[in-house]
Amino acid sequence: MKAVTWHGKRDVRVEEVADPAIKEPTDAIIKVTTTAICGSDLHLYELLGPFIGAGDVLGHEAMGIVQEVGADVGHIKPGDRVVIPFNISCGDCHMCGMKLYAQCETTQVRDHGTGAALFGYTKLYGEVPGGQAEYLRVPQAQFGPIKVPEGPADERFVYLSDVLPTSWQAVAFAGIPDGGSVTVFGLGPIGQMTARIARHLGYRVIGVDGVQERLAMARRHGVEVLDASVTGNVPEAVRELTGGRGTDSVIDAVGMEAHGSPVAKFTQTLTGLLPDAIAAPLMTNAGVDRLAALYQCIDTVRRGGTISISGVYGGMADPMPMLRLFDKGVTLRMGQAHVKRWIDDLMPLVTDDSDPLGVMDLATHRIPLDQAPHGYEIFQKKRDGAIKVLLNP
Predict the structure, then answer these.
(1) Going by DSSP bridges, is the β-strand pair 81-84/62-69 parallel, antiparallel, or unpaired?
(2) N or C end: fewer C-beta atoms under 10 angstroms in the chain?
(3) Is the separation of the CB atoms in 252 and 307 below 8 Å?
(4) Phi then psi for 217, rounded to 5 degrees?
(5) Using CA atoms, how far apart are residues 126 and 120, in angstroms rounded to an integer?
C-alpha cells in the first residue's frame, strides 16, 4: 500500500509499504477514506526527529471502512464506516474507567514514561504505524473505533478523530463561568474549533493570531479577533476589551513553536542539527520550547482565572513564571484529549444538517495522498492559505 513516511527534517515521502495485517484478536483493519495533517505532525516534520525512525508511517487523524476484525472485536464489522481516535485505549483499565483514555494503562508506553500510545507519533508514544496511508491496523479495536452513519461527506466526521474532541476538552478544561469570556491564542485548526465550540456554548470569545486567513475564518464564525501582527501588547489589548481584568479563561492552542521567542527558536534549530543520540536527551531534559504564547496566556487571564493548554509542548525543563502564576491564583489544566469521553457531546453536532460548528468550513486543501509532501510544506510554512489539509488515499 501507499503511505506517508518520515525520512528526516522536512522530508516526508509517499512510499510503498507492507499492507497491515491482524496481529491480535482485538485488532481491526480499515481502508482509509480520509486522513488529515495535524498541527502536531508538524513537530515531527520540524523538530522531533530524534524520537522517530526513517520509514515510520505518519498520521493520527483517519477514518474509513472496516475491512477485517479480530476475534474479540464485536461492536464493529466489515463494511462499517468508522472514525479512529488518535489515542489508543482499551476502555477497560483503571484509567479508562475514569474516562482518562489518553492515560490508558493497557497501552501506556512505559519505556518512555508516557501515556497511551498514539498512531503515527514517535517512539515516545509506541511508534504505532499511522493513518496517512491506504490501510490502517487499529489496535484495541474492541473499544476505539467510532461508528458514524452512511451518507454525509467524510468531512463531517473525520475531525472526531482529534480536532473536535481536543477542542471540546480545551473548552471544558478552561472552566469558563456562565456568561463568561475566553481568549484563544492560536487560530489553527484546534483554535478555530475551540473558538467555535466556546461560542456555541454561549461564551464571549476573543481569538488571537497573526495570520490573515486564520483571522478571516474566525470572523466568519462570529469570533472577535486580535491581529497579533499589528497589536503590540496583546494582553493589554484584551484587558482593554474586558474592563481592565482580562478574560475569565485563556486557551493556549499554539504550543512549542510559537513565534516571538528568538532564543528558544535558536535552541530548537540547534537541537535539530545535532545527532539523534545527543539531541534526544537534550530535548528530554532541557528547555527547548518557545513559550511566548504561554507567557501571554498567563498575562492575559484575569486573576483567579483558568488557563487550558491544548498546544503541544516538548521540553522537560522550560522555565515557568511561578511567582506570576501563584500571585494571580491561576489554575492550569492540560493534556492529550480523552477522545471518546467527548463523543456523545459532539456526535449530535456533526450529524446536525445545520452544521452548528461549521465543520464543512475548516479544510482549506483536499489533496490526494500522493501530494502529502506538498501538503506538509504549505501547512508548515502557512502558504497558499493553508489552515487544514485533508488527504484522500
Answers:
(1) antiparallel
(2) N
(3) yes
(4) -65, -45
(5) 9
Query: Which cell goes with 105?
Result: 494503562
Q: Where are the beta strands (DSSP E) in the chain?
A: 2-8, 11-16, 28-37, 62-69, 81-84, 135-138, 146-147, 181-185, 204-209, 224-227, 249-252, 306-309, 331-334, 365-368, 389-392
**Can you tell me the distance from the alpha carbon of 354 to that of 358, in angstroms, rounded to the nearest whole number?**
9
Burial tier of 13 (Cβ tally within 10 Å: 0-12, 13-18, 19+): middle
Q: Which of 39, 75, 54, 40 is nearest to 9 (CA)?
A: 54
CA-CA distance, 25 to 76, in Å (whole number)?
Answer: 13
| Angle of CA points 257, 261, 264, to nearest 5° | 75
Q: Counting every residue, how long is the chain? A: 393
* Amino acid making up residue 152: P
46's grid cell: 520540524
pLDDT in tens, 146-203: 999 999 999 999 999 999 999 999 999 999 999 999 999 999 999 999 999 999 999 9
Q: Is 241 exposed, middle or buried (0-12, 13-18, 19+ CB in 10 A)?
A: middle
